[in-house]
Amino acid sequence: xxxxxxxxxxxxxxxxxxxxxxxxxxxxxxxxxxxxxxxxxxxxxxxxxxxxxxxxxxxxxxxxxxxxxxxxxxxxxxxxxxxxxxxxxxxxxxxxxxxxxxxxxxxxxxxxxxxxxxxxxxxxxxxxxxxxxxxxxxxxxxxxxxxxxxxxxxxxxxxxxxxxxxxxxxxxxxxxxxxxxxxxxxxxxxxxxxxxxxxxxxxxxxxxxxxxxxxxxxxxxxxxxxxxxxxxxxxxxxxxxxxxxxx
Length: 247
What we know:
Blueprint: H1 2-27, E1 37-53, E2 56-74, E3 81-83, E4 90-93, E5 97-102, E6 107-110, E7 116-117, E8 123-125, E9 129-133, E10 136-137, E11 146-147, E12 152-154, E13 160-163, E14 166-169, E15 175-177, E16 182-185, E17 188-190, E18 195-198, E19 200-202, H2 208-246
Antiparallel strand pairs: 1-2, 3-19, 4-18, 5-6, 5-9, 5-14, 6-16, 7-8, 8-9, 9-10, 11-12, 12-13, 14-17, 15-16
């Protein structure tokens, strides 16, 4: 019976994680450039069960059919572009990310191209930092700038202001998903011949209909595991009562 408890409880924990990820996707369905995530489950025939007590781990036994979260994968598929009349809106067509120099010294990757201008005339992503060109911060001075499809930006006088730095995580790089569609990685590579669109931004790639379907499935699975625990508990109580009456 105890093995049944562990199996059902592990299922509940996995589905709770799944519900959290799905809920986060739904809440960010309107976040510009957001990338949805998926919980990848893994079931093993046998899993070691331990107990943590007084600062030490103690082996309890083995649990069969234990359900675990293997990974939480990010969907990097490209989404559609919403066209605007704002010259500060930009979108990458194809692979790659914009680079944003955060105020804490970190460089963030993002597909969010809803940029703005700071009080010094530099191109920025509000609340994060300055947009990076291949030679650092990009000074545009105002809204009267132009950009070609390669990401080359020219000021109102036709002078070269900089080329957008479009990079992607290198192979085997460790990439961490942050809030609001931002990513941190420990190694990047330049994207060859990127294509950048002006007067438009990329929507999130969340499929809201698919997310609601997954939400219903996860809720049903969570309820099933909860019911299984209640059933096992009732059987254990009945068994204990029967043994007590015999003795």
